[in-house]
Amino acid sequence: MKIYDKSRIIPEDVLFGNRTLFWLIFPIVIEQFLNSFMGMVDTMMVSTIGSGAISAVSLVDSVNNLVIQIFSAMASGATIVCSQFIGSGNKKESNRAAVFTVRFVNGKWLGNLISVSPPAGTPTDSARKLP
What we know:
- By secondary structure, the protein is mainly α.
- It has one domain (15-116).
- Helix content is 70%, strand content 0%.
- It is built from 3 helices and no strands.
- The longest helix is centred in the middle third of the chain and has 37 residues, at 51-87.
- The protein is flat and about 60 Å long.
């Protein structure tokens, strides 16, 4: 069973070649490997402190992975939408969808950053004077 007919592919109409796709995917694979490695190294670093520290690091690592998966899902969805517009020959709508996604993700990231940061003027623990 053939998934596609190779004879119907016109090489001049292909947007990206295999080599270009490899160089687009390679940094993503390295980034995912480093992210997994970071969680493992964090756990190893605090393993001498105790089980509470290991639990805390594991919890933070799980939340970190959840956030990465959410943003990856948004990127995958945007890729599908942009690909459909490009496939139909509507590059203007593809650009609009890409710009919307970048703005949405940046706004979400900035909103989350602001929501967890302390209000301006609030002293941190290191800045408070202990009696």
